[in-house]
Amino acid sequence: MSKTIKINLDMIMLQRKMSLTELSDKVGITMANLSTLKTGKAKAIRFSTLLALCDALDCEPGDIIQREDT
Asked: Residue 37 and residue 9: Cα distance in Å, rounded?
Protein backbone atom coordinates (compact mmCIF):
# COMPACT_ATOMS: atom_id res chain seq x y z
CA MET A 1 0.00 0.00 0.00
CA SER A 2 1.42 3.37 -0.94
CA LYS A 3 0.70 6.86 0.33
CA THR A 4 -0.07 10.04 -1.57
CA ILE A 5 -0.67 13.64 -0.60
CA LYS A 6 -4.17 15.01 -1.07
CA ILE A 7 -4.83 18.75 -1.31
CA ASN A 8 -8.13 19.82 0.29
CA LEU A 9 -8.14 23.35 -1.12
CA ASP A 10 -11.55 22.89 -2.83
CA MET A 11 -13.27 21.95 0.41
CA ILE A 12 -11.75 24.77 2.45
CA MET A 13 -12.51 27.38 -0.23
CA LEU A 14 -16.11 26.14 -0.34
CA GLN A 15 -16.41 26.31 3.46
CA ARG A 16 -15.02 29.85 3.44
CA LYS A 17 -17.15 30.83 0.42
CA MET A 18 -14.02 32.09 -1.33
CA SER A 19 -13.49 32.05 -5.08
CA LEU A 20 -10.26 31.13 -6.83
CA THR A 21 -9.94 34.75 -7.97
CA GLU A 22 -10.35 36.10 -4.44
CA LEU A 23 -7.86 33.61 -3.01
CA SER A 24 -5.38 34.39 -5.78
CA ASP A 25 -5.62 38.11 -4.95
CA LYS A 26 -5.19 37.51 -1.20
CA VAL A 27 -2.28 35.09 -1.55
CA GLY A 28 -0.52 36.80 -4.43
CA ILE A 29 -0.05 33.78 -6.69
CA THR A 30 -1.48 33.27 -10.14
CA MET A 31 -4.82 31.60 -10.71
CA ALA A 32 -3.03 29.05 -12.91
CA ASN A 33 -0.72 28.03 -10.04
CA LEU A 34 -3.63 27.91 -7.60
CA SER A 35 -5.61 25.79 -10.03
CA THR A 36 -2.69 23.36 -10.38
CA LEU A 37 -2.51 23.08 -6.62
CA LYS A 38 -6.27 22.76 -6.24
CA THR A 39 -6.53 19.92 -8.76
CA GLY A 40 -3.73 17.99 -7.07
CA LYS A 41 -1.38 18.24 -10.06
CA ALA A 42 1.30 20.22 -8.20
CA LYS A 43 4.49 18.31 -7.39
CA ALA A 44 5.57 20.66 -4.58
CA ILE A 45 4.49 23.66 -2.55
CA ARG A 46 6.68 26.28 -0.91
CA PHE A 47 6.24 26.80 2.80
CA SER A 48 5.75 30.51 2.15
CA THR A 49 2.85 29.70 -0.20
CA LEU A 50 1.35 27.26 2.29
CA LEU A 51 1.60 29.89 5.04
CA ALA A 52 -0.03 32.52 2.80
CA LEU A 53 -2.87 30.10 1.97
CA CYS A 54 -3.37 29.35 5.67
CA ASP A 55 -3.46 33.07 6.48
CA ALA A 56 -5.95 33.81 3.70
CA LEU A 57 -8.18 30.84 4.56
CA ASP A 58 -7.77 31.06 8.34
CA CYS A 59 -6.73 27.44 8.65
CA GLU A 60 -3.79 25.20 9.53
CA PRO A 61 -1.46 23.41 7.06
CA GLY A 62 -3.00 20.07 8.02
CA ASP A 63 -6.39 21.35 6.88
CA ILE A 64 -4.99 21.83 3.37
CA ILE A 65 -2.60 18.87 3.08
CA GLN A 66 -3.57 15.32 3.97
CA ARG A 67 -1.75 12.00 3.63
CA GLU A 68 -3.91 9.36 1.97
CA ASP A 69 -3.64 5.62 1.28
CA THR A 70 -3.86 4.57 -2.37
From this structure: 8
- Average pLDDT score over residue span 8-13: 94
Q: What's the chain's length in residues?
A: 70
Give pairs for 61-65: CB < 8 Å, separation 24+.
63/8, 63/12, 64/7, 64/8, 64/9, 64/12, 65/5, 65/6, 65/7, 65/8
> Domains in the chain, start-ordered, CATH in brackets?
3-69 (1.10.260.40)
Tens of pLDDT, residue by residue over 35-69, are: 999 998 999 999 999 999 999 999 999 999 999 98
